[in-house]
Amino acid sequence: MLFEQIATGGCQSYLLGCPDTLAAVLIDPEISQADRYRALAATAGVRIRYIVDTHTHADHFSAAKQLSEALGAAAVMHRASPAPHASLRLDEDDALIVGNLRIRAIHTPGHTADSMCLAVRDRVFTGDTLLIGGTG
Fold it and tell me: What Rg do the C-alpha atoms of the chain give, in angstroms?
């Protein structure tokens, strides 16, 4: 599995990809890093199929809408999200299939009503449900 962690201040974004099919997903992209995500995907030779926001962000501006339009990728959020740009909405236990990767949604409301975690293989992406040194 391709795995890249991108830090922007205190925020974390992730690019996950399937090396067999060259499909990828971008999780919690920050707008100031949009060109960097595209460059990472190009360097890895993957095509971003999904762009996921794990919750409605108040701490940074999401690049999901911009990148979704530029790359022709689905913008993904939880069903409870108020975001009008989400073209695919997930519920509890729904899965995104990214090549050989199965990414399962876990609804974790609290930080925001639309918060969700994403479980894939040996990792869980928690958005702001869990933070380094605290909880959201």
Answer: 13
Sheet holding 116-120, edge to edge: 95-98, 101-107, 116-120, 123-125
CA distances, 14 to each of 22, 37, 84, 110 (Å): 16, 9, 23, 22
The domain that holds 104 is classified in CATH as: 3.60.15.10
| Six-digit token string for 67 | 């990148």
Are the CB atoms for 86 and 65 separated by under 8 Å?
Answer: no
Express each pLDDT in 17-42 by its tens digit: 999 999 999 999 999 999 999 999 99
Residue 42 Rama label (left phi>0; alpha psi -120 to 50; beta): alpha
Question: Domain tally for the chain?
Answer: 1
Element (H, E) at 23: strand 23-27
Rounded Cα gap, residues 50 and 1, in angstroms: 16
Tens of pLDDT, residue by residue over 90-119, are: 999 999 999 999 999 999 987 778 889 999
Distance (Å, whole) CA 134 – CA 62: 22
* Domain range enclosing 31: 2-135
